[in-house]
Each structure stands twice: as C-alpha cells, then as structure tokens.
Write a structure and sequence with these properties.
Protein name: CoA transferase
Helix content: 25-40%
Largest sheet: 6 strands, parallel
InterPro entries: CoA-transferase_III_domain, CoA-Trfase_fam_III, CoA-Trfase_III_dom3_sf, CoA-Trfase_III_dom_1_sf
Distance between the termini: 33 Å
Strand content: 5-15%
Strand order of the largest sheet: 5-2-1-6-7-8
Organism: Methylobacterium tardum
Keywords: Transferase
Structural class: alpha/beta
Number of strands: 13
GO molecular function: CoA-transferase activity
C-alpha cells in the first residue's frame, strides 16, 4: 500500500535529531528520503546511546525507510551530486547553523534557482534571522530559552529536563507541518516553493500555552509545580500505599464531583465553593491533600479500579517495561517486531498518526552508511565507471 507521501522526494542534509526525526516521519508515510552523510563515520547518531554490534539502536529507529548516500560536501563533485538531487527533490531538510549551507554553495538562492518548486525546511537553534542566529543552539538550549525548563520540576528543585530530546522533536514536528503546508501550495498550483524557517527556541515557546498573556496582564510568572497543573484543579500525581503513584485528572466540574464521591468526600462534591475550576484552584492545596490522604490508603491497582468505576481519568506512570507489556499498545500496533542486520529480533515503536486509508509502514531499519550511494547515483545517470571514479577521488563512499 502506498503512503500519502508516495512520490515525494526528500533530501536530508541533517544530522543527529531535529532534521532526521522530521524526515523519518515523512519516510514512514511513503516519501523517498535520501539522507546525505559524510563518508567515514556518517551521522554521529550512529554512535549515540545504546549500541548493538557497533551501531546505535536509536539510529535503526531514527533512519528507518531512508536511503543513505555517503557524499563528501567538501568536494566539488560531491556538491554537484547534491545539486542534481535537489533539482528533482520536492523537499530539502537541513539543520546546519544558519549560513552553513551558503558557505558550501548550497544556499536557498542556489537550490531554488535550480528548482523553483523546492521546499526547504531549515531547522536551527534561533532561526535564520535575528541577533542570535549565529549562536550554536541544541535542543537543550531551545528548551531552556523556550520556557519549558523553567516550568518543569518541583518548586524546591532546580529546573529539570524532560527525559527525552523534546526541543528537537518539537522543532521536527513544526518542520513537517510547515513542509506539508508548503507542498500543498506547490502541488495545487498556488505558488512556488519557499523556506520553512524553524527555530528550536520558538518551537518550544509555541507550546507554552497562555504563558505570555498571563505575565503581561497579571504579572504571573509560571514556574515549577511538580506534578500539578497550575490553575487547573485537581490534576496531580498522588502516592499510593504500595509505594507507587497514580495520576488523577479530576479538573472538569462533573468529573470532580464523581472523584470526590469515589474517595468518600461527597461533602466536597456538593460544596458550592468548589463547583467550578476557579473556586477549586483557590483551594488546590486542600484538595490535593484530601486526594492524597485517600490514595495513600490504596494500592495502585485498587486506586485505578475505584477511579475507573467512577469514570474518572487516571493512570499509572509507565516505564518502558510497562509500555512494552501493555495490551493497548500492542492492539494499536505501537510495538512492532523488527530485525537488525544479522537477524537479531528487536521491538521498535510503531507509527503515529494512524491513517485509515494510507497508513504509514516500516520498510527497513536504518541502513548502513552509503548503502544506497550507487543506486541513487545510477538514477542520476552515472554509470559504474563514473561512480568508481568519484569514489577514487573521495567525492563519495
């Protein structure tokens, strides 16, 4: 079955996380993604985190369905190959520091002149303009300056990091959204290609809800609140008798009443002062204490059973072991069985989102460095002798 992006060619000039995650999503839904890697070591992600026989498990996930070509961008011949690929591409995704592609002679002015319908996604720390554009910016900096770290963690602790590269991932998602909107414009004849300028800082900032107007009008500086949602009550993480935790979201008016009844406090369910969120938020400490007094008398399973019977949203905090064993994840094909080189079986995450008619699929795991160099160059019209000559000159590997 063809994916919804079947027929779309994407050229990836990125490394590590932000640009490669964006192109992974496109590849999962049918796009032909050609990943350009430097000869020798390739993308540094190949050696990040936990390894299997010398290759990162993250790499196999991040680069599934992609074609890898090893091209030396410091050679004229290598640059010419990239230009030829850009001529037939629909999208180029890159995460160089601003000006990096221009120094190579692969800037927007050059590539758009070769292909006026080209869409270029440019992911950087601070964006392509502004006084900070030339600063190095990784996801950690985007998370810090975008506001999310100031609001993450316990009130009595330093700002905390989310346990994954959320800044990079948010930038990737914004890049994909921008690319699809720009592609729609091109494919429907509304206009030519354009640049999608994605900043790590701005991608994080974009999900920070009402942070700015609360500060501007009310002087409110939202800060760390642990497991609670400030101003949305009750919604928090509560301890259980067996040393675990349950997350309970009882913050809509009818759910709050059901929650209070379930924990044996019908008096609070009927209290006019707690009838709406504004009133409850004024007594959030009391309500959290009341719920915790109840949860500490329950095991995790007992608490979840009681809350499910009352139709109150609640859940345990999952580890990866919980996720892999969960029947709902399995029923939704969110845990896929894959095979690594040499035949080693391994579980991998499934594909999101779920499309009813043109779902995404995994055709292969992250490839070996340069695995598709010859086939991609052959499609450009280069014969075996020419490819061998380029390899001898170090332009490709």
């Amino acid at each position: 079955m063809s994916g919804p992006l079947s027929g779309i060619r994407v050229l990836e000039l990125g490394q590590l996380i932000a640009a490669p995650f964006a192109t992974r999503l496109m590849a999962e839904f049918g796009a032909e993604v050609i990943k350009v890697e430097p000869p020798g070591e390739g993308d540094p992600l190949r050696k990040w985190r936990k390894m299997h026989e010398g290759t990162s498990l993250w790499w196999y996930l991040q680069s599934r369905n992609k074609k890898s070509i090893a091209v030396n961008l410091k050679s004229p011949e290598g640059l010419d190959i990239v230009k030829q690929l850009a001529t037939s591409a629909d999208v180029v995704v890159e995460n160089f520091r601003p000006g990096g592609l221009e120094k190579l002679g692969l800037g927007w002015d050059v590539l758009s002149a070769l292909n006026p319908n080209l869409v270029m996604v440019r992911i950087s720390g601070y964006g392509q303009t502004g006084p900070y554009r030339d600063r190095p910016g990784f996801g950690a900096i985007g998370e810090s300056m975008g506001g999310i770290r100031f609001t993450t963690g316990s009130p009595d602790s330093p700002p905390a990091r989310v346990g994954v590269s959320i800044g990079d991932t948010l930038a990737s998602l914004h890049g994909v959204i921008g690319a699809l909107m720009a592609l729609l414009r091109v494919k429907t004849g509304q206009g030519a290609g354009q640049v999608i300028d994605v900043s790590l800082v701005e991608s994080v900032f974009n999900v920070m809800e009402s942070l700015v107007p609360e500060y501007d009008l009310l002087g409110e500086v939202r800060t760390r609140t642990g497991g609670a949602l400030p101003g949305i009550t009750p919604s928090n993480t509560y301890p259980t008798r067996d040393g675990g935790y349950v997350v309970i979201a009882g913050n809509s008016d009818p759910i709050f009443r059901r929650l209070m009844t379930a924990i044996g406090r019908p008096d609070l369910a009927d209290d006019p002062a707690l009838r709406n969120n504004e009133g409850r938020s004024q007594q959030s400490a009391m309500l959290d204490g009341t719920i915790a007094d109840w949860s500490k008398t329950q095991t995790v399973e007992e608490a979840l059973a009681a809350l499910a019977a009352a139709d109150v949203p609640a859940g345990r905090i999952y580890s990866v072991a919980d996720i892999v064993a969960d029947p709902h994840y399995q029923a939704r094909d969110m845990i896929l069985q894959a095979e690594l080189p040499g035949g080693t079986a391994v579980k991998m995450p499934g594909i999101v989102p779920k499309l009813s008619e043109t779902p995404g699929e995994v055709r292969w795991q992250g490839p070996a460095l340069g695995a598709h160099t010859d086939s991609v160059l052959a499609e450009l019209g280069l014969d075996v002798a020419r490819i061998a000559a380029l390899r001898a000159k170090g332009a490709v590997a």
